[in-house]
Automatic annotation (TrEMBL):
Keywords: Signal. Residues 1-20 form the signal peptide. InterPro entries: Lipoprotein_repeat, UCP029720. This is Lipoprotein. GO terms for biological process: alkane catabolic process.
Length: 139
């Protein structure tokens, strides 16, 4: 009986930390890193890899956006907007617009959606003028 009591005590003492908060006791688990998500993704189309926003709308670049720091399009094309506190992630950077708002750029090329595209997968903006190009991951 005495051996049983010693064995039970040893088991209880060794299992105690493992049961405390589910991670072995001691210092608390480190906080998880903040999840960051790219503002766009690559899809494979008949024309090759294409950047689309998170809703699946085709993204475009504007030939007159040359500095990588600002957007030169203030017309009907819709910028891929970023929050004021957005931070660069991978090849995606945040740039300023003339009105002070922020937008996403891919490899320092501002990204826009076309008003001519009505559904995910449409690429009608490429045909409107030669100054607009479908954004591709190799650009």
């Amino acid at each position: 009986m005495f051996r049983f009591l010693i064995a039970a005590t040893a088991i209880a003492l060794s299992a105690g930390p493992a049961l405390a908060n589910g991670h072995g006791g001691g210092d608390p688990a480190p906080p998880k890193p903040e999840a960051t998500t790219a503002p766009a993704k690559v899809v494979l189309t008949k024309q090759g890899p294409t950047l689309v926003d998170l809703k699946g709308m085709t993204l475009y670049t504007y030939e007159r956006d040359t500095t990588g720091k600002t957007s030169n399009c203030n017309e009907s094309w819709v910028p891929l907007s970023a929050t004021v506190d957005a931070k660069a992630i991978g090849d995606f950077t945040v740039i300023s617009r003339n009105d002070g708002s922020k937008m996403w750029a891919y490899r320092y090329r501002p990204l826009y959606t076309s008003p001519a595209d009505k559904a995910p997968g449409d690429a009608n903006g490429n045909a409107t003028t030669l100054q607009w190009r479908v954004a591709r991951p190799e650009n």
